[in-house]
Amino acid sequence: MTISKSFIFILFVLGYFASVNFPFEQGTEGEAVDLSNLKVEMLTNPEGIDVLRPRLSWQLQGDAAGIKQTAYQVLVASSLEILAQNEGDLWNSGKVEEETSIHVKYDGKPLQNRMEAYWKVRVWTSSGESNWSEPSHWSMGIMYYNDWKSTRWIGMDRAFDWDEVSTFSRLSARYFRKEFNANKEIKQAKVHLMGLGLYELYINGEKIGDQVLAPVPTDYNHNVKINVFDVSDQLRQGENAIGVILGNGRFFTMRQDYKPYKIKTFGFPKMALQLHIEYLDGSKVVIRTDESWDFTADGPIRTNNEYDGEEYDARKEMPGWNLPGFDTDGWLKASYVQEPEGTFEAQMTPNMKIMGELKPIGISKLEQDRYILDMGQNMVGWLHMKVRGNQGQKVTLRFAESLKEDGELFVRNLRDAKVTDIYTLKGGEEEDWEPKFVYHGFRYVEITGYPGTPSVTDFTGKMVYDDIKTVGSFETSDPTINQIYQNSWWGIAGNYKGMPVDCPQRNERQPWLGDRSTGALGENFMFDNARLYTKWIDDIRYSQRADGSIPDVAPAFWRYYSDNMTWPGTMLMIVDMLYQQTGDVQVIEDNYQAMKKWLEYMRINYMDENYILTKDSYGDWCVPPPTIEAATGQNADVKNPSKLISTAYHYYFMDLMADFASRIGREPDIPEYRALGTHIKAAFNDTFYNKMGYYGDNKMTDNLLALAFGLVNENHKQKVFNSLVETIEVENKGHLSTGVIGTQWLMRTLTQNGRADLAFRIATNRTYPSWGYMLENGATTIWELWHGNVANPSMNSQNHVMLLGDLIVWYYENLAGIKADPANPGFKNILMDPSFIDQLDFVKASHESIYGKISSHWIKNGTEIQWDITVPANATAEVFIPAKDVKSISNYKKRLEKSNQIADIQSSKTGKVKLKLMSGKYSFSFPTL
């Protein structure tokens, strides 16, 4: 019997993917499989990497049952021609008898500067042997500092007459150009560019790439990212022109003279570029940045500032400035400038891009020439505008998340961010414009000075975030849960800005560590964010001081080294998330010493003789006030340090470090972690446990941490959990009273202790305080505060994700039953044990893991539950079905006893049947209990 299925081969080079999709017919063992209908899809462009041993991954996908890889062979060649001969002059792995299909390290000849590498793979599976995959590709970048020695950094280290360097700096964009002659037929050409703060690159008038706000931000004193582009199709034989615009970004800091003790500054924008051209005759030439480049700052972008907006004067446009033959009269010659201090390195994460467009839902007139545009959704990006008018007319666009009662913009929560774009018309024909080097967080736009009467058709919202694929879907029968999920998606996506920032609208936009510790795990179910968070862990490690301390913000654009366990400890939690969700042990190896050093720093400086960690900076940040009346006008910027919290996390981190050490062969460290953990646990209970059956002040967070971290002695667990439940049900009337810290452990701890029903109640409340309360008050993203509709505006973002806690994790792991097995991470084995909540009629979810798509869909049909499951190829699942015995599951004899897809069947003492499933699609029916 022939069964139709398909394989997908995916190249993974430290986070870069290129996929090859092809259907084929299943063959018998040893028989090649037909690949005649092969299709190729490039998910990202792995150009210019600097990793000497890239890691390769591939997926096997198909409808056939029980697909398991038994062996693989990888070929890597220096050309497509060699690879087409089934030869690997760089690496031939030979047939490797392993089921490993992710993170396979290249083990061939040394990779050289700017080398091209083409690879393919074939696999042997339980269903037969495949043909070779279609080739995939990566290229090496400029890997060594010395290779930039003949390339100069150019710029202009001064402001111009129309600029202002002050607390509210105004600095125009810088334009650079270079003409050159390519006197032969071109085979290949690649640009290697470091453009700081932000750049746009042009070749012969054509913008190169679809990236925006590039490159990703870093602490430029530590590292500077290189972007690489293949421009072979844009160059031509004869005269050519390169053009680069530099915006300010995080490099020329927006607030130059504002709290210099706190905010880092790096200097004026600058760039270094190499264009490598290879001709068909084999000769090569390099075009570099030097003093021959032309420069002007007197272009149409008069200022660009992430907090304050962009001003564009179309009368100053320079038609043809990035084309050959442009008259540079009035331009200056670029100056040599000091290079940044940071290490030059390849950017291994995707840049931002315009990921979607929104049309406004309405426009209303305030007075005279002022209008309010409503996008219908709190979004992050900018506005594209069409306008026709007279030369010199100005259109002002001011952005905000909400309106006041009189219909005016509410901007007090933006602090001193001006968030205003100004466009000056050149006049004549219809003009199209959108900014290049800013972004805004907004739902509403005040439009002033628009010629004539503006219409919703004149404007389009451009949604901007990292080029990251949405890999999760989630839906239930409950509309509140569904809307919270949608609001979460908008908030998470909008705050991906080359790093995870806290908010997109006010004068902050900082990568606070504490905002993402558990949230990153939930995000990973929704987004392919492993590359982003791997880069962010690098940012954190770079920011670590020699003594071991780690800041609260990384990259440390703000110098906050406050020393506490919860915010810097996010590093350990993100490392754990990346390992559990992707199976990538390299992230542990790369960061182990930094994590160990930080914990030693905290222990030496802040652990007392009784093993209590005495230093915490924030406590349970943003705990909701007891009532909405008490919350009205209240400041949220209140710190309540807690030794209980810092000591609990100290114990939790000892447990994590012991696990990390075991994963990477650092067994000698484990006894020290275990011994210290034992002392911390004893001290925690001696200090904080009350014999009445609670911890600390009997706050929800106090009891949650003790339960979640395994700090409670076995004979006290039920009493402590009862105290937690009583607080929720009696004192809080079914609501939470947790801040950022407690909410990270709330939903899972309740569920793991048998009260999924109470977790569900909290998840679906629409009264204060709750996520549903935000919906009731018009939120389309997640608020910074539980009382965000009435709080003092000094700290009141309407697009934060820190209060999501473990909610999204709970959606996937506990409602849908999609969870990575810690013993076999990366979803090599999936733990599927959902809570079939009485109040839910169905849950339908999916997650595209590194092995392929996992799906779980359960629905109640009267007194029966039908549960459909998809397990990806080369993976397994442990499925827990709430049934008295295996015979209660429909089609038992036909479906279970005789199926070779089911490796094991067990009945547990908890009243569940455990099935060990091979890959494939399943449908189970069983009675509700």
UniProtKB/TrEMBL annotation:
GO terms for biological process: carbohydrate metabolic process. Gene3D superfamilies: 1.50.10.10, Galactose-binding domain-like, Immunoglobulins, Maltose phosphorylase, domain 3. Residues 470-815 form the Alpha-L-rhamnosidase six-hairpin glycosidase domain. It catalyses: Hydrolysis of terminal non-reducing alpha-L-rhamnose residues in alpha-L-rhamnosides. Residues 184-355 form the Bacterial alpha-L-rhamnosidase N-terminal domain. GO terms for molecular function: alpha-L-rhamnosidase activity. SUPFAM superfamilies: Six-hairpin glycosidases. This is alpha-L-rhamnosidase. It comes from Anditalea andensis.
